[in-house]
Amino acid sequence: MKIKSWLFGVAGLLSITVSAQERQKVEYLEYDLDNGIHVILHEDHSTPIVAVTMMYKVGSKNEKVGRTGFAHFFEHLMFEGTTNIDRHTYDKFVEGAGGALNANTSQDRTFYYELLPSNQLELGLWLESERLLHAKVENIGIETQREVVKEEKRQRMDNQPYGSFMYEIFRRAYKEHPYRWVPIGSMEDLDAAEEADYVNFYRTFYVPHNVTLSIAGDIDVAQAKKWINLYFASIPNGEKLNIYRDREFLSATAFNKKYEGQVAAKVLTSANFDSDFSGDMSTEDFIKKYFPKASEKPIAVPRPTIKEGLLKEEIRDTIYDNIQLPAVAIAYRTPELNHKDKYAVDMLTMLLAQGNSSRLVKNVVEKEQKAVMAVSFPFPLEGPGIAINLAIANMGVDPADLEKSIDAQVKLIQTELISDQELQKLRNMIESDFVSSNSTMAGIAESLADYYVYQGDTDLINTELDRYMAVTKEDIKRVANAYFNSNNRVVLYYLPKPTEGN
Amino acid sequence: MKKLLLILTIISLSSSVIAQLDRSVVPTAQPNPEIKIEIPESMTFSNGLEVIMVENHKQPVVSFQLFVDYPEEMQGELAGVNSIFGELLSAGTQRTPKDQFDEQIDYIGATFSTNSRGFYASSLKKHTSKLLTLVNEVLMSPAFPQEDFDRVVSQYESSLAATASDAGTISSNVSSVVNYGANHPYGEVMTDVTLANISLDDVKAFHKKYFVPNHAYLVIVGDITKDDVKRYASEYFETWPKGEELTAADYAVPPAKGNNVYFVNKPGAVQSVINITHSVKLTPGHEDEIKLNLLNQVLGGGSFSARLMSNLREDKAYTYGCYSNFNSDKLIGSFSAGGSFRNEVSDSAIVQILAEIARIADEEVLDNELDLVKKSITGAFARSLEKPETIARFALNTIRYNLPADYYATYLQKLERITKQDLILVASEYLSPKNINIVVVGNEDIAEKLAVFDTDGKITYKNYYGQDVERLKEVESGVTAESIFNNYYMKTMMATNEAELADKVKAAKQIETISKAELKAYSATIYMYSAEAETNKTAAYVFMESPMGSGAQQKEWFDGTLGGNVAGPIVNMYEGEELEDKKKPNFPVKQIYYKDDADVTVDLMGIANIDDVEYYKIKITGKEATIIEFYDVKSGMLMISETYGTNENDEPTTAIIKFDNYEENSGLYLPKNTTINNEGLLIEFEVVSRKISKKVKSKAFSGNFKKVEKVIGKLMKG
User: Fold this and answer.
1) Could you give all domains of chain A from N- to C-terminal order, each with its CATH number?
2) Residue among A111, A29, A56 nearest A458 (CA)
3) Measuring CA to CA, which residue among A223, A219, A217 is closest to residue A115?
4) Is the ipTM value over 0.85, yes or no?
5) Helical segments of A135-186, H only
6) What are φ and ψ of residue A246, in 5° steps?
7) Which of A141-145, A229-233, B23-27, B68-72 is the least confident region?
8) What are the chain B neighbours of A425 within 8 Å (beta carbons)?
9) Which of A237, A417, A456, B717 could form a disulfide with A35 if both were Cys (CB 3.0 to 4.6 A apart)?
10) Residues A93, B26: C-beta atoms closer than 8 Å
11) Given an 8 Å threshold on Cβ–Cβ distance, is B155 in contact with A372?
12) CB contact under 8 A, B27 and A122
């Protein structure tokens, strides 16, 4: 049956009903190891590949003032090698196996991954377990990566038109919370990092109970579990892990000085200590012999405790950049990721700028031609987040004029309920996005870890659609008023930097 | 001994649940998984549209990608018309105006985007027929509304303006221009000028000529069966009428000579975007392509252990990333290497990249490098099969480039057979490290340091579109346009102070010059008489002697209040604005009067360097024309004058006059040679005689050229 002239309205609405069951359910299995590592496994044999991923719950929000950018810098150092992996070879193991690897760092977490042929799963597990247990960071690596990270900052932020907009927004949208700086941090802070920082950071955050191992692909679950047990369950936690790392990275003298007289330690002054410490004795055996009572109790990972509510009055500023077309960025503070309003805020931003029929694209870009492009997107974070409306002005358009146009569209949503048809459009878009997402093993592994780590509910990978479908027209109007109001926002104008001469 | 070991192993296994693991042992791989590739065969619809279908039932989604493989042709004055067409293709149809079209696409949560070679459309399976109804309208009757054309053009104007802040786009513009040259479709860049030339009719003409099913491929991927496709064919695709057959034209690229540095100034840049590149004759599926893929992986493929990455990032920390690439193409391919580097190390980065290119072209790669990249490419190949789009791409390439049917199925075997000797052979054939373009977009502070990389030591400065620009030095303080004009005046009068000048002014009230030029191409000789007198009298007479006949070509005169000119049979008396303009004082040099002329603005632009001579460059903007003048910094004399104006039909005209061999003539310092470049026709005049008088006496100023004709007549005989 071909509908030639396709009428909107009741008939159309009835013909499209949400049926999420169309997508195959993502089956998975999850469990905790004794040391606290959370494991998620997804089995799919359609292609002989596997994604091995590790999500550490540490990001720029765990940094101290004066050390901004450290979490991301540290991520770079995590490719330098381990006790058993020489410098500049970590990546070669993966590439030699026909795999690929990389990592990224956000405000909330650091994510490492290896994409491997499925016959190399064990290699991926070994590599990631090495990184967690005893990553080795040497001065030469620190100095090199410090410069590399600075180049990354220049390339992504300083030399990119509008590249600083996230930095400029976040530093104004938060007063106290560490979200006020972005993961790339500052050049000065990168320069200031010292040896003690690396040691403390690794000890505090790179611990078993702070990581989720998520694997998706062509795996034999029983075999995978055996290997996970072998490489990961054997990693100690708590005080014992600290001793383990100290035995491998400290000098005998430094080690002795640190542990002298500690309750958990047997006599370190005994005759064989020096030869046991520096000799062939495995670290496991060394700990058994000298620290039989070392505690494996996880040491709590510190998290920022600052609670920061919405903004109380508008913040406005102008940024001069190497650009030709002015831009307007309007950032509204939104609640944290787990807040019930997340879904309505997501849909509000879709209503504004997803698709050519969206409010901003249709009106501000096409009809009024005030902008060459307009986007609206949520930036959900574990702590309080933001949502951003961003538009780049058409040539000759005053940014104030552009701002007015954008605001007019927001105002309309605040005052008038959207139509049933528009709500249905949003639902159809979400359904389509949801069904099409998770098409790769790497994507599934990351989504599973995300849902577990942030929302504590791995099954959202199958059920989150229901939460969107529960959002009403009234919810969208309500969140538009609650969050997209002028007292709760940062407005930035990007203007071309005045140049000297002509 | 063996037994003992075995026993020990058993003990240690049993003593603890978690066997003590020797972490220094690298795990060994399980047996290699089998890689299966099945390239689907294509179908051809009745209108010539070739269809490739890849079934994938994992998700209830179907996508349709249309790729019209029309041959690349130059668009010349209309460069960029294809991009505008690509945008406008999504501006609704004759049945469904754009707003409704967008609404309907969004309502079913579909994706629909267009480009100059077709579209990509995707939706949930349950909405496929709705999506295809709209797609069919786009194929049959796109709307191309004027208002959307205007909108798209205005957005392109804005984005062209924004190019100035986008180093990546600038680098790619300049690289295409220098690699492929001005006479190749790939060397064309849309500029504000070509954009202004494009009309809606041009877009429609482009659509009519190029958007035809008989040159197109339709790639369908997803939850679909062959029967579905057959049904869709007749319902949505076969009604798209066949167009004319198009044949590909041949284009040549300029051969690179030596290393050339091209620099684009991007004020405020904190990094240089460097691209080291040249064109490469490499067609897709050529037997050398896999070898070059391997070679590139060693040099600068995506991995951290590739030579460029390991040298410039992991060892020297010059950059966040440095990569290289071979690009194969039906017409002409390219090689490129580069990245973004902080200002201070930009030159060092070029040294290292060039060294790595030279090294890989001169020396065999190491066994372990070859082994590593073979494994890494094999892995990447296998991983890419996860996406059904990869199989679709393989199928498309197979028919589009006429590859053997098993090209992809045997890809890994072909890869495995390649030796390091093969690599050195293709490296020497395809890489030309001594004839390479070095394109740098960055802060001008670093430009001078890059001259060493250029074979002839000269940097070519480019603008954002890849066109040549000269780069001006700043003028020393104290020098102004007025001081330059004044100096030129004093030098012309050969006076060093005001008193001398006053004497000279009294002695030189009229200058008459007769010059001669040979126009060899026409076997012609031209004589020109010109006269000037205070304060605004002028006269000129041009006589040409040629095998085609001899005679006066042009006369013009002005006596201070009246004048006119004669060209052929047409007499034109000055009036109105032209007359007012003639009345302006101009003797002995017009430049000294500019400061009192309200119609003229003068701008000292800077110091230009042309063939190692420095000139003050001054822009003089008048009502009718703009003149650019170049004054020799050393001598102070006017050497070049470029006039940009328009003719009667409002078409732009350019006249360039060069002055040379200044010498003394009765107390004045004047050029012996004057070369006129009139729209490409060069006429080189040399002074035959020159007379400087205390009195204004030439009758030529009032249009009487009898005496002049006599003198010239004598000269011709003599």
Assistant:
1) 27-237 (3.30.830.10), 240-290 (no CATH), 315-496 (3.30.830.10)
2) A29
3) A217
4) yes
5) 139-153, 165-173
6) -65, -40
7) A141-145
8) 103, 106-107, 109
9) A237
10) yes
11) yes
12) yes
